[in-house]
Specification:
Blueprint lengths: L3 H14 L4 H11 L60 E9 L6 E6 L2 E4 L2 E4 L4 E6 L4 E9 L4 E8 L6 E6 L7 E5 L1
Parallel strand pairs: 1-9
Antiparallel strand pairs: 1-6, 2-5, 2-7, 3-4, 7-8
Helix pairs in contact: 1-2
């Protein structure tokens, strides 16, 4: 059997003489991969001949993966993240038509306020928060005012100069209406 040193010498000889060393390299690779060194020649396994077949690979079966559910839109964290509907007019105010007709000749004063507490005709009102104030003339008042969008609910108060109890009416923004209106009869 050829030793590794003999193969190296043959390879060096091929390189020095410029001969094709393909056979030497093939032979060296087959014998170099054999068992370890030493031992007597009788214990070496007999060389077998046969054909080497490359391992066959089967293509992996591909199962279609479903599209992942889209992530929900994240909550806006800055003004750059806001998405505004195309039909939004981006108005900070709305028009409120006030129409009061109490059919009375009593002198009265009207206040429309957004800072109040209480319910069922028992209210405490911060009159510093009133968005509109005006006198009724012959029991009537008509006004068209601009109101900030955040004032979606306000309290209308009619005060009478004769000292009788005030009249309260709660007004709330109605998104279904094109024109917001407060009517007191």
């Amino acid at each position: 059997m050829t030793t590794f040193n003999d193969l190296i010498k043959a390879l060096i000889s091929c390189i020095e003489t410029g001969k094709t060393c393909l056979l030497v390299l093939l032979f060296a690779s087959i014998t170099a991969c054999g068992g370890g060194g030493g031992g007597d020649e009788s214990s070496a396994p007999a060389a077998t001949t046969g054909t080497v077949t490359p391992p066959t690979t089967t293509p992996p079966t591909t199962t279609p993966t479903p599209d992942p559910d889209p992530d929900p839109a994240p909550e806006p964290t800055s003004l750059d993240d806001l998405v505004v509907a195309a039909d939004n007019a981006m108005q900070a105010v709305f028009q409120l038509m006030i129409s009061i007709d109490i059919n009375s000749s009593k002198r009265a004063y009207f206040s429309l306020c957004d800072d109040y507490s209480g319910s069922n005709m028992s209210y405490e009102v911060n009159f510093e928060s009133c968005r509109y104030r005006g006198s009724l003339i012959d029991g009537q008042l008509d006004a068209d005012i601009k109101v900030a969008n955040h004032n979606g609910q306000m309290l209308a108060v009619l005060w009478f100069y004769d000292g009788s109890a005030p009249s309260y009416q709660l007004w709330q923004y109605d998104a279904e209406l094109e024109q917001q209106q407060l009517t007191v009869n």
